[in-house]
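re: that complex we talked abt at group meeting.

here r the seqs, copy pasted straight from the sheet so there may be weird spacing, ignore it
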Amino acid sequence: MTILSRKAALEELERQAADSIRLTAEPLSQWRLALRRFRRRKSGMFGLGIVTFLVLVAVFAPLIAPYDPNEVLIGKEDVQKRSGPCIHLLGCPEDQPQHIMGIDGNVRDEFSRVVHGARVSLVIGLATVSVAILVGAALGAVAGYRGGWVDNVIMRILDVVLGFPALLLAIAIVAVLGPGLTNALIAISIVTIPQYARVMRAQVLAIKELDYVSASRALGATPRRILFRRVVPNAVTPLVVLGTLGIAGAILEAAGLSFLGLGAQPPTAEWGSMLASERNQVFTAPHLVFFPGIAIMLTVLGFNLMGDGLRDALDPSLNE
Amino acid sequence: MLGFSTRRILLAIPVLVGIVVVVFFLIRAIPGDPCTAILGERATEEACERFYAANGLNEPIWVQLWVYLQNLFTFNLGDSVRFSRPVTQMLIERLPLTTELATSALALSVLVGVPAGVISARRHNTAVDTATMAAANVGVSMPVFWLGLMLAYLFAFVLRDTPFQLPPSGRLSAGVRSTAFYDVWGWELTEGTTWSKFLEYLSNHVIANTFVTGQWDVWWDAVQHMILPAVALSTIPMAIIARITRSSLLEAMGRDYVRTARAKGVLESSVVRRHAFRNSLLPVVTIIGLQLGLLLGGAVLTETVFGLAGVGTGLVESIFARDYAVVQGFTFIVAAIYVVVNLVVDISYAWLDPRIRLE
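got the structure back, here u go
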């Protein structure tokens, strides 16, 4: 902790004192302490706010969106394709149908598509990170716990994966599997496995030497029981942090793959592919590029801020 | 130092071999028959036989891998099915653009990111710090392709016919050509030799080529075309570099030797510049090396947005055209560059910080 100003120093001392008093008054669990530290960080709470907002938007998308995301409005309403936003509150004539983000190139309501895109993006983020964490943590735990040649083989293979620039390897994998959202998700999972495996391995290496693990071993617990009951539960904290930040990365990468035409395919309301299909119209219909991009940025920002906040709260030693 | 470098180089070899193997098996992992996958569903048996023979696909897999390795060492990356040209020739034309793009973006992100981090650390916990870090948070969250399109819209459309107008696509304006330095200097070259290919590769670095030969009009045109892609590509690394510089400098400022320097009355600016900043640069160097992966990946997106004929666009087009020799060759070259640059960064890191060598 670097202290430059007296005021900050005093505040920090007060905080520490307050913490220690509370600690003596009532013993707090690690998680409650972490929660308290998390709440103190404004940016982390802001991130949590964005993420909560997005989750609500995704869950209630059909209620929020005025149209079906794939509903073509030709013949139903008097609208032109790629016409700009029409918001009644901002002076758009009342007799025209309201489209707050305008109309896309296939005469669909852009706002409805952006809202439904939240579902796709959150699923992408959660799915890729879950798969990558499960596989990565399993590999890392086995490598760290077994050591020896098992460790060597697993880590050298993962080194090769890390040897590629991530997006490039993901592109190459999609090239083999064929373009599509599922294949893009598989590709992103594969390229992000090594980071989780490495962190898990480092954790396991440190934890397996601790006394309570030795005690468990002395009591005759099987290696599997020791690994999954004693070691792994104590090693997950950094994975939670990394996973949250990983969701941000995965969403960004998936949007990138979709932008290149390798991920989600039209007519799926995915932000990256929505952007891609209108990118040549950026001079005539900038709103069709602007809104999906803002949506991606907001989502990624939310997870990044939340991840940073979690890192500070759960494991101060992980701080950059 | 020599020992460390040797060890580090030896460690990189298995990774490079792994990359070659992965790239080699890419083409063989395509579901179904590679012949129909590449030549199309209606390829005759005869055509397939010829295709197998031409690509050595009749041989046992180990022989194929051996031949592939031999070819790599002679820079023979096979032929593009789509253009019937050597992949190496395509690289000679496309790689320089990607290199220039990535280098410009890296330079920009260091030139802006490091000072931003320093300012933020020196004004720790002030509005300046908060604003810089908020900007950095937004910077890491911004999709490269979206920023690229927005910049193009702003500088090529909104600001058109103003002095700030910048071209939204291409590498040079129509009609503008860069004359290769060996032509300018009147070198006698034999067509088709490795040497002439190498010189052609060098001369395709348009900005550098026009700079050394003094073709200033062309140089300025090329620079103008490079500004928007480089800015778009540089934001994420710039934000990361600013954050690392800030936290690393803050950590250094809390060290005993900084307190000592202050106690003996050294000027604050000098404390920061000579005592804290120099010692805080080490993590920044590592991070800069790692950013190259982001830059090479992001270059694919940036090139697509700005219609630049680089390795990235070549790769994506080849995927859609099922031109697997190109996919293989381009993937290999970019991954190899990445490994080698990280190797150089690691070694320079050890050179800067003697403690690393002893580990």
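couple things i noticed - The longest helix of chain B spans residues 216-253. The two ends of chain B are 12 Å apart (CA to CA).
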